[in-house]
Structures are given as C-alpha cells and as structure tokens.
Amino acid sequence: MAEFVPVGKRRRRLAFGRVKDLVDLPDLIEVQRNSYRWFFQKDVDPDRREAMGLQELFREIFPIESYDGSFALEFFRFYIDPPTTSEEESRQRDLTWQMPVRATIRLVNRKTSEIKEEEIFLGDFPVMTDRGTFIINGTERVVVNQLARSAGVYLSADTSVPGQESFACKVIPDRGAWLEFDLTPGDVLSVNIDNRKKIPATTFLKAFGVPGDDEILRLFGAREIEVDLIEEEVRGRLLAEAIVGEAGDVLLARNDRVTKEHFDRLVEMGRTRLRIWDVDPALAATLERDNTTNSDEALLDLFRRLRPNEPARMENAREYIHGLFFDSRRYNLGRVGRYKLNRRLNLDFDLSERLLRIEDIVSMIKAMLALRSGRERPDDIDHLGNRRVRAVGELLQNQVRIGLLRMERIAKERMTTLPNLEKATAKDLINVRPISASLREFFGSGQLSQFMDQTNPLAEITHRRRLSALGPGGLSRERAGFEARDVHYTHYGRVCPIETPEGPNIGLVTSLATYSRVNEFGFLVTPRRKVVDGRVSDEIVFLSADEEDSFYVARANTPVAPDGQILAEVADRVYVRYRDDIEEVTPDKIDFLDVSPKQIVSVSTALIPFLEHDDANRALMGSNMQRQAVPLIQAEAPRVGTGMEARIAKDSGSCIVARRSGVVSYVDSERIEISTDDGGVDQYRLIKFRRSNQGTIIHQKPLVRHGDHVERSEVIVDGQSVDEAELALGRNVLVAFVPWEGYNYEDAILLSERLVKEDFYTSIHIEEYEVEARDTKLGPEEITRDIPNVGEDALRDLDENGIVRVGAEVGAGDILVGKVTPKGESDQTPEEKLLRAIFGEKAREVRDTSLRVPHGEGGKIVAIKRLTRELNGEDMSPGVNEVVKVYVAQLRKITVGDKMAGRHGNKGVVSRILPVEDMPYLPDGTSADIVLNPLGVPSRMNLGQVLETIMGFVAVQNDWYVSTPVFEGAQEKEIFEELAKLSKSHPELTRDGRTTLYDGRTGEPMENKVTVGYMYMLKLIHLVDDKIHARSIGPYSLITQQPLGGKAQFGGQRFGEMEVWALEGYGASHILQEMLTVKSDDIRGRLKTYERIVKGQNLTKPGVPESFRVLVKELQGLGLDVEIGYDDGSFGELIVEEDEPEASFRPKRIPPRESDVVSAADEEPDEEEKGLLQKLFPVSTVTDEMIFGSDNEPEPSDEKDDDSEGADA
Asked: I want to staple 763 with a disulfide (CB 3.0 to 4.6 A). Which of 188, 355, 630, 936 is the partner?
C-alpha cells in the first residue's frame, strides 16, 4: 500500500510505487563528465597516464622523424594548467572558458645523440563545467553523444532472389581501409578493398603472408583423401596429386579443379582411384580463379589491380600493402574493433593487438561459409551490440587527431627546409595553430556541438543525455531508412522508445534511458538483478545488448514471494523476454530481472504520471513539450508527480548542492555561507536574473534558513522551475472537461481571468540586443549621444555615451545605443580640394545607424554589457572596436494565443480569457480555472490526463502530494477508493470522479455531470508575443524584388499558388493582379501606387513584374532567344518607356504620340515631400525621373541600404 516518503526538508509525498528500487539512479550527466575525464586524465600523475584520450594521441603521433631519420621529436609528458579566467568572467566577456595545455617535447639529433628538451604550449582546450557543458564565446554549449556504428566485423546475407543468394562479411576498422568479403552465387570468394576492384580471397591471403595454395587449404582444415573415380564424387574437387602422362608430361597439376573433360581423360587412362582435397567447394572455385602461386605473385597482382597506373615493382607493392594494413598509424582496428572481432569470431587476441591477423581473415571466411550453410546468423546493424556511444571525449579525440596530423606534416616539412637544423629547437619545428583551429571548428561549428537548450532545467538535462545518429561518421537524414529510426528490442532499458523529435530527425535523435550507462567500450549497458534457481538475489549485473541476447530476462514487477522466490504468473510459468520475443518459462529458467519499471524510459518520459494509460504518440509529445515549459515566477511542484522530480532538479545543475555538511551561518538572496562540521566555511553565490540561451530566466533562491543544519549533497538553493528541491515546470489548476460555447473547439483552451490576475502563468523573458562599432572605409563608427536629426525626447534615457540607462522602460523604435556611421561624400572638384587643404577638414557627414528596439518588442532595461578593444583586445573580431549588448526584460502574463499543454501530449492554444464569474463552478462555488474539450481525450487515447485530474482532486482535497511512478503507479481501484472517502464531504461526486457543474453566467446546472479535478498544466515557450507580426512596407529580395518572408526579416505573407487558385475561383481578377504585381515585384508599379495613395489619386495600371524579367533573363542564360510580342504585331526585347506612367503588360515598342503622354505628377512636389519619398525608396529602385517625370538627371540619394525598401501595400 502507498506510504508517505520525505522529499526535501519540508515536503512528503504519498508514494504508490510497489517495486523497491535496489539501485539508485546513476548520476544523470555522468556520460559527459566521465568521457571528458577519460580524455584528459587530469587527476592522474603525468608520468602514469594510460594510453587513452589525449595521451593516446601523443603516443600515436610521436615520435615525428625527419625524412632521412636523422632528427626526431619525441613526446615526454603533458601538463594541464588552471583556466586563465573564471567561468563567470568568460561569460561576461564573451570568451571561451579554456585551460592551457603544455607538453614536454625532446628534439633528438640522432647523428650527434644531442637531446634538447623544452616545454611547448599546445593550445587552449575548453573546460567542461561541473554541469557537463562548455562556455564557448560566452554562450553555453553541449556536445551531444553520437550513437554510431561500431568498428568490428559484420556478416550479412541477401536471400531475396532464390538461387541468387549472396553472403558478405565486412570489416570496419577504427581507421583505415574497409574490407569486404563476398560469396557470390558462383561459389567464388572474393574480397573488395575500399570499394575498389574485387579480387579472389585466396590472392589476398597470399598477399597477406600465406605462402601458397596448400597452406591456404590447410588453414581451412582441408584433408587429403583418396576416393573412387566416380564423376559425382570427384567433379569440381581439387586434386591433391599431379597426374603425369606416359611421356612424363604433367596432364593435371596439383590443386587443379577436376572438370568433365579431366574426368573422361582419367577414365581413358584407366585410373580407378584419385587423391583429392576434402574442402568446401567455394574454396576450390576460388583457387581455380586465382592465377597466383605464391606471396610475391599475389602482392604484384593485388598492386596491379588497386594501382593500375603505377609500375608494378615488388618494393612498391610491398610498401603499398604494408601501408594499407600493417602500418598502425594508417590502419587500426581500435580497442573496440579488436574486442568485437574477438567476440564475433571466437578469437582470443589481446585487446592491444590492433592490426588484422591471418587468423582473423580465415575466421571471417569460415563464418561466411557457416552463414551460407545456416550455422551462423547474419548481424543486425541496428542491434545496440553493433552501435556504440561516442561521447564528448572520443569526439574531441578524433578532432584533435586531425589537428595533430596537420602539425606533424608541418614539422616534417620544417625539418627538411630549415637551413641549420642543428641549432633549431622543438619550438621552431612545432606549429600549434592546426590544433587550435581543429578545436575551434569542433566546438564552434561542429554538428554535434550544439547551442544548449536552456528553456528549463529538464531541457538542459535532456540535452546532455541526448543520443544522435547524425554527425560526422554517422547517418544523414536523407539516407536513414525506416529500420535505422525504428525502436529495436535492444533499446529496452538502454534507449528511450518514446522520447524523440517529431520532425525529420524522428528516431535518429533519441535519449538515454534512466538507468542506462556507457561501458568502457562505449556500448550501452543497463542493470539487471541476478536470479539463481528461481530466487531473486540482490546482486546487480550491468549487461550490454549482445550479452543479454543469451539470457531470459523477466520484468521488474514480476510477482516475487517475501523470500525472493519468483511466483508463477500463468500455469506455473512466467513471462520473460528472450532476444526479440516474449516467452513463457518456468521460474528456474529465468536468469535476470529488471531493476525498476522506469528503466525503460528516459528522464523526461519518467515525469509523466499514469504513462501506462497514454498512447505512445501522445506520450512522445508530452515528453517533448515538458522541455518547452517556460519557468514561471511562482514555481509549484505537481500535486501528482512520479517521484523523479527531485532527482532531475538536483542533477540538472540549476540548483546548488552543499559541498560539505554544516550549519547555515549566513543567508540572503545572493549569498549563502555554511560553517562546515570540519571547521571550514563554504560560500555559495546565487545567480540572479540571468538570461538563458532561449531568453527565459535563470534565477536562484535560497531554500535554507539561518541556523539550519545541512547534509553533504543536500539541495540548499532552488533554481528556476524548482520548488522545494523538486522540478516544477507548471501549475496545479482546476480543470473541467466540458465544451463551452465553441471556445474550446479544436483543442483550444478557455482560461479564467484569475490565472492572469494572480500571476499563475506569468514568466520573465530577457531579450539581448547587440550593436557593433566597426571600422569602415570612410572612418570608424562611433557610439555617441550626438545623433543627427533626433529630438531630445528620443535621447532622454541615454547616458552621456549614448547607451540607454539600466531601469529605463523602452518600447518599439526607441534608441538603445546611439551610433553614427561616416557617410560617403560626392567627388570634390579640384577647387574644393584646394580650399579643403588650406582651411582644414569640415565636420564629416554621418548617418544614424543606432540600435533601436524592433517592432513589437519592449520592456525594462536590466543590464548592459560593454566590450571594448582595450579590454578584450585579441578576442574581438577584426574590424570591431566596441560591442554593446543591452538586455531588455519583459514580464509576460498569459494571453490569448499562448500555447499550453499538460504532461500527456494534451496541447492547445488559449482562445479566450473569461472573467471568474462567467467560468463554470462547482457546487461549493469554486470556479474552474481551465475548461478543456472532452473530445480531446477519446481519439487521442491519452487517458492518463483523466486519471491525473481525478487523482489531483483527491490530492488537493486531502492536501497531499502524490508520487505515482510510471508502470507501477496508483491503480484505478486505489484512486476510486480514495474518491469514495471524499464523497462524505462532497456528496455530489460520482464514483468515477464526476460532479455537477454550474454555468457561471446563468447559474443553471449543466445537463450532464462533468469530470473536474486538478491537472498540472504548463505554459510553453511558443508565445504569441514572439509570433505576432505585420508588415506594410519593408525589405525586398535583391533578385526577385519580392518581399522577404518571415518575422526575422520583417517580411510579408506569401501569396502562393493555392491562394492564387482561391482568388481565381472567386473571379477576383483585379485583386489577383494587384497581389502579383504592385503588392509584390512590379517595381515601378508599387512606387507609383504608393505615390498615388499618398496624393489621393487614382491608381495606375500595374506594369511588368520583376519575376517576368528574371524568367526572361534565365531563359536567355540558357542560350534561348526570347522576344516579346507587342500590341502592334512586332517582336523585340522587353522595353518599358520610363516616361510612360501606365506601362501595360504588353508595352508598345513604337514611342507614343505626344498627345498620349500624360504627366506622371500633375504638380511639382515641394522639397519636404521629395525628401520623404527619397528616404522611403533607395536609389537602387527609384529616381526622380521615375517618380516625378522630370527631365533632369537626379543626384544620387545619400540613404543607401543593403536591401531596397519600398511600398508593399
């Protein structure tokens, strides 16, 4: 039965879990931390480091020898220095938080035996924070774990066409050439090196070092036997003797294959018995195709096939094959590759043996022959025994290897080119730039180094536990088929079958299961309880996917007697998993038990109560949407949780944990001091109002009081979205499932005004705006308060430097940072130049390029960050003198258009906010907070939300917090028992949790009883304030001259093909013509339209759209002669008369009569109007002549923009 368990210092939860977790959850971000530790071995003495990570790389690359071997650079040891800046300083100054790495290198002159030893700086390596992240250029980033195909050997069979079966065996090394053995329908064994020409496998074996055919046959266990000369017995077999004619001539050589003609000849000779080899026919067929007799011939044959354009000399061939397979720097199976080869082929080589051996190749061919005969099974490449995790350390190692190899090449070149090498030092030979460049590339722009998702603590922790099949050496979205994306039986307990994106990455990006770990070889392992003779022991074993394939495993909640004896479920049998099947076996056959029911799912999915009652597709949405929940200003833990909330909050890194036990001696909102039990004092600084990568807030508040005693690793500070050390992504609200006037049609959500007034769903968002002062060709830009043509009112909140003050309220269009840019001046006459030279420089003309608040934005200035070249010299981009960042905070209440969701994939958009008095209410007068549509439940099959609602009602009425873990939570029976107890105080409640609801507007009871209860609802980051957008005039695309698209570009709404059909359907031809011309890309037309609207005149006819001109030019680019047909029947190029205001779609080629010409403007505009129009329309599209019909050549406008701006009605 359920019992209360303490959670944190001041809360207890009623826990319904029936399986006691024997194993604690592992540290949820240990994958990241362990991998980085493996790479650096920072805590190991430099002289005692094992050959792994960075140490392995140095051992691999060094010694670097000159081409003549007289000089060598040798690696001795490397040191890691402390970071030059603190984490916080790196954040503030937009730096990378990194630590210098030095190495002791010796330059050895082998002629004189002289040794010069010195320390060399190898570069700055980014430091991993204690949260498993990196600070790169001031922003937090995560290196995602890659789930890639493991090095090793893979058997495959293609039996799709009967009679045309083929079998293959592929060796994938860690580095080097791929090797694929084929067994084709003709029974010939061939080998393919790096997808080049196929060669007989026996030729390859000889080139690899087997002397001749007899030795090859013996390697495969062939025996010489004597048989009667019967055609069926000897035809196609290999002779084990030479057949000599009467004249002493050799008729058939040893190891020849017996054909029909050979058999007839032998019969003629009177032979009755024959010595043959007892060997697989495939080997016989292969030897027949093999024209070589010994290793040297095989080497030359192989070289000719692989390098047909090079002279086939023996030394060349030897050197080439040696480089291909016997040079450990070019070919390396890797530790994992050797481990997989040993396991798959039942070999027993040491894991330090990283090259292919003849025994490996023989075993592979034997395995392939066994596959053909059905004694072996083909390998499944999606099996987790064949896919391994490359975490940050290994990914970094592969990247640094590239840098070190470049460094090695440069060092070798310098050894050759330096004039007096005897006087040189290691510093002169080693260039460390390639290492820094490879690190920058990896962390800055690598596919697996990602901008961290910091929407809330759950998003952070999930991002660090993510597994991606994409990235270098992995799959690509386009190539990945259904099998690579599908859930595999080996995912059980290792990879979450639920949490994955819904888009093109579905199944390629997944998440680690809760108890999953990575073993020393990079394979995912999961804990199991050992079962001995049908009795469960407390021994825990971590099993990888291929180890588990040979065991029967029962689920965690299999019935077990108090003494540990497994109880039968169905007729003295128990359900177990065996490979990809569910079987029934007797208890004594069971090998292992799962450790926990939540072992199957990821941390995000483990937060969904009653997950077992939800459809998997909706659970997927629920898992993903919890990561999008915005931190609210009043965090509230869920009444109905799963027991995972506290652990996630603690491991996410958003809380602060006590380093040592002691007593709190000082606490305020920014600092906590603890007098530790061992006499020291620990200080903790809290983060206040910091902006996250997603613009949400990172904020901490103390959880302890003065005088409290705290234990080591106890949570002492709550982060954002954390309440009493438990994850708190949303709020518990009273929901009613009832349709309401169509306002909750199609999943829309009806909200009570109480939630807005009481700030239930209010969140703080901080936006960052940045401006750079650069050097331009005309002089440096300047950050200043002195801005041309700007009134004092617009400058009221700027300080003397032109930067807005902290605390100011700003709205759209307000200046945040005043900046002026030098303006180009027209060419001066010689006289002007002379006068300028005599009387000195006049004040330069500048234009206003200030940073302003964009459309629809605004808020309160909370921080300013100013970076100058004096402070951040070498870390600033070239040409940038100063960077100013302004942080603007907004308090966003929930509003119509915001997206909300529950934890079961039940999402919707707020459609209306009703006054409290109009909301439906319970018999006791309590108004519902949210009204949801009951039709959103049955077809979605996420009934977990209904059970959560009823359980939530019980919990609130009893003032409980409930923990109902996934797959072992509260049963319906238990919930309804608690409901029955409540019916004494709530007589209107039915047995299934429904009650009479009253219409708030009329006071009438609703026709049917309604399910009402408390549900945990989240506000998601898809906020209407970030999405709402409108445009009248804005930028146009340079080529097509059509308005740009999207809010970020301040673009228009696309009127696409289908929208055109709609207008065609209505016959709205004039609207359609406007849409496709003057509202889009008819340049002259839109200018004239704007001008006429301004003047209140009638509009002109549209002209030729720019897209038509682009089409004409593209056709001409293809070499087609495009001519335009005119009204007068003539043909020619497209000509638009500039003076003709009403250019039609079919322009006249003959100049019009004077009587037809109408002045474009009835009256000459005044200077103010002229200036306004010139500001609105840049020179790339407008001239005075186009607008005013003037004959004078206009002067070019000073106002120039990157993109033409103009009227977009």
From this structure: 630
The closest of 348, 225, 203, 180 to 289, measured between CA atoms, is 203
**Cα dist from 52 to 152, 340, 556, 1087, whole Å:** 19, 18, 37, 68
Residue 57, CA distances (Å) to 60, 77, 394, 1053 in order: 5, 12, 11, 54
Same domain for 181 and 111: no
CA–CA distance, 290 with 210 (Å, rounded to integer): 14
**Residue reference for tokens 């704007």:** 1090
User: Are residues 179 and 164 part of one domain?
Assistant: yes
Whether residue 336 sits in one domain with residue 188: yes
CATH code assigned at 1157: 3.90.1800.10
Listing DSSP states for 872-937 in one string gives: HGGGSPTTEEEEEEEEEEEEE---TT-EEE-SSS-EEEEEEEE-GGGS-B-TTSPBPSEEE-GGGT
Q: Which pLDDT band, with edges at 50, 70 and 90, does 842 fall under?
A: low
Distance (Å, rounded) from C-alpha 199 to C-alpha 132?
49
Q: Do residue 400 and residue 251 come from a single domain?
A: no
Together in a domain, 240 and 142: no
Q: Is the per-residue pLDDT at 754 higher than 80?
A: yes
* Any domain includes 999: no
Query: Model confidence over 189-205: pLDDT tens digits?
Result: 999 998 888 889 999 99
Question: Which of 859, 892, 925 is where one domain is finished?
Answer: 892
Mean predicted lDDT score pLDDT of the chain: 88
CB atoms near residue 817 (< 10 Å): 25
What is the extent of the structural domain holding 85? 30-148+389-435
pLDDT tier at 826, thresholds 50, 70, 90: low
The total number of structural domains that make up the chain: 5
Q: pLDDT tens across 1116-1172, in order?
A: 999 999 988 888 888 888 776 554 444 444 444 444 444 444 443 444 556 655 555
Angle among Cα 732, 737, 742 to the nearest 5 degrees reads: 120
Q: Are residues 232 and 380 in the same domain?
A: no
Q: Tell which residue, 1102, 1087, 1082, 1090, has the closest CA to residue 1142.
A: 1102
Among 349, 384, 419, the domain-final residue is 384
Structural Rg of the chain based on CA atoms:
39
